[in-house]
Amino acid sequence: MASDAAQVKAAREDIRELLRTTHSHPILVRLGWHDAGTYDKNIEEWPQRGGANGSLRFDVELKHGANAGLINALKLIQPIKDKYPSITYADLFQLASATAIEEAGGPKIPMKYGRVDVTGPEQCPPEGKLPDAGPSSPADHLREVFYRMGLNDKEIVALSGAHTLGRSRPERSGWGKPETKYTKNGPGAPGGQSWTVEWLRFDNSYFKQYFRISKRNEIRIFWSYLQMLLYLRTQSSRSMRRNMQRTKTHSSETTLRLMLN
């Protein structure tokens, strides 16, 4: 069932209001990314190839380790789905994610709609399609996951820029602090450790923070060792700076390109 265009337009306004009242931009971006991030370019058949197909609404997939906490995103978005039943979950998750990026100060990303939902939990992808928080060989692991989706090293780094939004929560990923001076009072749900100071703003600060890493004595900002190692192994200082200049739009465009699959 294709999503109704009028309902998509109306739902976008409801999502904007939801964002204004809950400051849930990061978790809605994560919802869209995790529904899309199971995509496998080497598989022709649908839904076996994964991707943005609404499968993340089922408990079996929500219980995957990488999806810890996303039940909260589904609870936020479900009333909008109930109000606009002609929108598929697959489209709604991506609409929410793209709208959250825009409302956080990122680019307005032209979206296409018409994604089809899987019909049952038996069509959910197996666990292990998304990045692990603590693999034994981080760079190799990231390449294995993202090459499967059709991305190269530069695109992996650019996509990592989406961490300009949100926080790491140790009860979900095993990484980060329970709270910092930047997160202990919210806005939104308090706690966690952010990658950036202004963790509700979609900008280039995630990459700028990398170049300050050697100057910090107190790590209140969380830098994932996965991304840091990938940087160190794949990017020269000059190419990193060149890539950083492009990332404000590139990271979101890469995210949404995955979501279109």
From TrEMBL:
The reaction(s) this protein catalyses: L-ascorbate + H2O2 = L-dehydroascorbate + 2 H2O
Residues covered by region (Disordered): 164-190, 241-261
Cofactor(s) the protein requires to work: heme b
Cross-referenced Pfam families: peroxidase
Domain of life of the native organism: Eukaryota
Domain Plant heme peroxidase family profile: 28-169
Keywords in alphabetical order: Calcium, Hydrogen peroxide, Iron, Metal-binding, Oxidoreductase, Peroxidase, Potassium
Family statement: Belongs to the peroxidase family. Ascorbate peroxidase subfamily.
UniProt-recorded name of the protein: L-ascorbate peroxidase
Organism: Zea mays (Maize)
Gene: LOC100194161
